[in-house]
Sequence to fold (319 residues):
Amino acid sequence: MTWLVTGGAGYIGSHVVRAFREAGLPAVVLDDLSSGHAEFVPDDVPLVLGSILDTDLVADALAVHGVVGVVHLAGFKYAGISVERPLHTYAQNVTGTAHLLAAMASQGVEKIVFSSSAAVYGTPDTDLVTEATPTSPESPYGESKLIGEWLLRDQGRATGLRHTSLRYFNVVGSATPDLYDTSPHNLFPLVLDALVAGRTPRINGTDYPTPDGTCVRDYIHVADLATSHVAAAQALADGRELERVYNLGSGDGVSVAEIMSAMAEVTGIAFEPERAPRRAGDPARIVASGELAARDLDWEMRHSLTDMVASAWVARQAH
Fold:
């Protein structure tokens, strides 16, 4: 019952690996460490160093470890940079996924949970995104994730591959102090790093049509996310029918100003954020319903905003 977690040395992937272990399910990690960290992988979990673009390496890992399914988190995830590096983004996220699927087919591995993204929706014209909301990605990153979903769909039609894709928004917090978000682009590490360095965090845009004038987004705790990845894998292993895609959303969202207030309260560092102009392309509000995932994938917002900030702060202080 071993599952391969691609990108399992990254921030989200390492939490998924821990969740598998807690559920009593063996896991093996494949990661090229381009953004992951070997120390994030538990000592008793095998780590295969390499890229999903290496079909033979992936096929060998599947065979050697007796893998029955894959949780696919490996990829290039920076939407803004993807505009500057589209070929790199497509190579990692589209070609890489195709190579992974080829390796799975060669070894008879017929189950996959795919880490997709809310970026497939672009700027939706609705207050609450559902799985029926039209997709309209606005970056090579979002496009690559949507194409990844199509690859799974088409491989399912061709070979019977059993699959589901999880679309999620802003993942924050930490389940344990030794795992933390090291992204140079995500809001939580940017704010915490600024506070530690004595700088003032910045809000981009305070004149949006929202209750406090700042952008509203879905922020979800990484441990809750990891739980639903395991639930999806177990459902596929049990032969249960799943939807092709699921949103892992909060249903209500949090504003950037609310996050800044929580940061000040939790850290004990009083500050008044700098107010900067809007960034081009930032929509006022993107919030998703998680009803389908709650029905099928044990999805639940188990952590409050304070929990999210506090766990991220503890992990940041530990490093």
